[in-house]
Amino acid sequence: AAINHLSILLTHRFSPPAGFQAQPEKQAMSRWRAVASRLSAPHLLSRAFSKPPPLLPQPLSRTFSKAAASAAATSHSPSAASSAGPRPEVRLNSMFLSKPSSLALPPDSPLRAEDPHYEGIKRLMLTLLLFYSKQSKSIRGANAVYHRITSHVDKPDIYEVFQLEKTFKTTFSLLVLHMWLVLRRLKEEGKDGVKFGQYIYETYNHDVELRVSKAGVNLLLTKWMKELEKIFYGNIVKYDTAISPEASQDDLVNVIWRNVYADEGSEPMDAAATPAVQALARYTRREATCLSLTDKEALFSGNFKFTTVLPTVPSPVKQPSPAQ
């Protein structure tokens, strides 16, 4: 198993292949239609990327409208409010404007991922099995980092706040967006960061393949995965360009609209979706800065946590009971 894992690690890199060029928008979006056509059965999509049964990929402007309407209906439902407790008010235009800060977990956080500490014969045996080798530590760290990404993307909150219906495309698009955020930060660490990013990319690639395979898509799986890989690299290039110093403030908003929300690359931005798209762009820009402020040790060990997107509701203050 270790040999197979190592061989997989050596066959993939997260940097674009030689000669890779970003595809035009229409061609890139046609890849989504090709992917969707191969996942033509609703039960396949219900088993891949989401636990609640999602709909087949549809024009995202309509999907956005459904999600927004559903969220509004839920927030105004007395039964929902009483069963789930008070829900925080989402004000998209005022979110993600606070000063960026490190995402590193504090030393006493219960969410920290720590290597087990063994002594005596156990430690000796694990040392002989290369458990404490640099490569083994990197693989464990990459798994921890990828778990941070998937646990964040899989939460219902991120779809509620950014008014997205949970479909194959939206989940995959958010996954790629957060992969890009992490890989971009790792490049700041030079060769060590690039090498560590390759471990994370392979973990991502293996996870996507497992999810699709478990959904029952076995025929043409290799070809289908290559299409997803092209979408991944295309999105990475677009995000890099949109956040570069030469880019305008609206470039990232437009790229997020096309990559996450829109069904057609040339489709104009839906006016109703604009606040949500702009909020996701602000979140992305802020999160990129927060990751740059996160130290190398926290990043390589996976001991960081993405910013919570749903505002917290302050606990109600208990009124003192009247004196008897």
TrEMBL record:
Residues 67-84 have a biased composition (Low complexity). Pfam families: Ubiq_cyt_C_chap. Residues 67-87 are annotated as: Disordered. It comes from the Eukaryota. InterPro entries: Ubiq_cyt_c_chap (IPR021150), Ubiqinol_cyt_c_chaperone_CPB3 (IPR007129). GO terms for cellular component: mitochondrion. GO terms for biological process: mitochondrial respiratory chain complex III assembly. Residues 161-306 form the Ubiquinol-cytochrome c chaperone domain. Belongs to the CBP3 family. This is Ubiquinol-cytochrome c chaperone domain-containing protein.
